[in-house]
Amino acid sequence: MFDYYQLTVPVYTRALKQLTHILDKAAEYAATKQINDETMLGLRLAPDMYNLTKQVQIVCDNAKFAVARLSGTQAPKHEDNEKTFAELQSRIAATLRFVSSLPQAAFVDAEKKTITLPFMLDKPMTAEFYLLSFVQPNLYFHLSTAYAILRSNGVDVGKSDFIGAM
Length: 166
Fold this sequence. Notes:
It contains 6 helices and 2 strands. The chain is mainly α. It has one domain: Up-down Bundle (Four Helix Bundle (Hemerythrin (Met), subunit A)). A two-stranded antiparallel ribbon has the order 1-2. Helix 3 runs parallel beside helix 4. The radius of gyration is 16 Å and the shape is elongated. This is DUF1993 domain-containing protein.
């Protein structure tokens, strides 16, 4: 049996803090190079991929919805209308507040839950499958993509910026 609290709250807290860190570096880079937020946040790796803003929004959504669904609580709503680094940082901070507000006791019996996503009503998942095979890869895909967008466009970020202090 998994400890769903330990597999979510501390893990997502760390990931979100590192996302904050790399966005700080991106904002500093943009200011130094006199690149406006709209241009930086519109960057993408490929024409058919989401831009940086959407990558950050999806990381936040994965974290907040995972802990909400596994704990049986209501996730905060975000409008997906961020246009600046400051607004994205505010969204990450709000997500961090929500994720860290949930006590370990909220995750009791999480393993017994069946998770049905609004866009996949015909595919209910066990809590284990949802967490390990849907949320974790999805969260890290979008976090890695945000990192890659920044690195490929000249922002001085490296593996330690992504992983954080050990």
